[in-house]
């Protein structure tokens, strides 16, 4: 038997699909880098006025977080977590852009910029892809 969905039903379905696809934040932001180059990941969040600190993490395949960099909003110093694969390769700017020097295939991960206020945690994920030259 052939389904006879009315035009209004099809219209509603199309609108729902369009809303899901076009909704901001649903798409993945991807940064591409060549092997050996510097990966530059902007935080992509507006810095809130009551910001306490910003942090970057990446996610392991099982979804567990590994924190790699921290910057207080009041202090100018940056703290890098003890993650051997990123030792001496990270740089976190004042606008919370994370740079990773000497890109490797193992850097292909989902990284997340986190801006933390007293009331909220804002997150912006970035997918990193590394290609051979």
Automatic annotation (TrEMBL):
The keyword Transmembrane helix applies. SMART domains: IGv. Residues 38-115 form the Immunoglobulin V-set domain. InterPro entries: Ig-like_dom_sf (IPR036179), Ig-like_fold (IPR013783), Ig_V-set (IPR013106), Surface_Rcpt/Adhesion_Mol (IPR051116). Keywords: Cell adhesion, Glycoprotein, Membrane, Signal, Transmembrane, Transmembrane helix. GO terms for cellular component: plasma membrane. Gene3D superfamilies: Immunoglobulins. It is a single-pass type I membrane protein. It is found in: Membrane. The keyword Hydrolase does not apply. Residues 1-27 form the signal peptide. One of its GO terms (biological process) is cell adhesion. This is CD166 antigen isoform X3. It comes from Leptonychotes weddellii. The lineage of its organism: Eukaryota, Metazoa, Chordata, Craniata, Vertebrata. The gene is ALCAM.
């Amino acid at each position: 038997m052939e389904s006879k969905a009315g035009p209004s039903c099809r219209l509603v379905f199309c609108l729902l699909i369009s809303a899901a696809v076009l909704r901001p934040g649903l798409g993945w932001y991807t940064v591409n880098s060549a092997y050996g180059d510097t990966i530059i990941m902007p935080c992509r969040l507006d810095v809130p006025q009551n910001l306490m600190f910003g942090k970057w993490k990446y996610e392991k395949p099982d979804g567990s977080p590994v924190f790699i960099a921290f910057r207080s909003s009041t202090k100018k110093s940056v703290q890098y977590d003890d993650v051997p694969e990123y030792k001496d390769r990270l740089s976190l700017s004042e606008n919370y852009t994370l740079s990773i020097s000497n890109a490797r295939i193992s850097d292909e991960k989902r990284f997340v910029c986190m801006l933390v206020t007293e009331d909220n945690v804002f997150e912006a994920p970035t997918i990193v892809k590394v290609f051979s030259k």
